[in-house]
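Sharing a chain and its predicted structure for anyone who wants a worked example. Both blocks are below, sequence first, tokens second.
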Amino acid sequence: MTIQDMVRVLNAHVLLGEDKLSTPVYTACCSDLMSDVPAFVDEKTVLITGLTNPHVVRTSEMLDLKCLVFVRGKVPSEEILESAAEQDLVVITTKATAFTACGLLYAEGLRGVPVPLEWDSDSEGGR
């Protein structure tokens, strides 16, 4: 899937990076808790979030993300967009909720980073 495909699927508006819409993306992560993102990213990952603060851009830089998708019609400040431009990020916004955006992208073939779904006996959920 390319970022242009994502824009189409999400009926999104491109805020930054129109020249990079042909960039391929292979996985996505959805979170509003930036400390969780490093555990669920991979190369050519997209971050889907409702947060519009500087932590989102710092997380993207640290993990070399390709695209930020802001949900619920959120639009980051000019300061955030300037920081994203310095990192060569594509930034888009969609009116879809995070849940709907993830579902639409999943239905079109975009996946998350694989994680084991089984509980082991040592984890809290494995009781």
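Comments welcome. Strands lie at 13-16, 27-30, 45-49, 67-70, 90-93.
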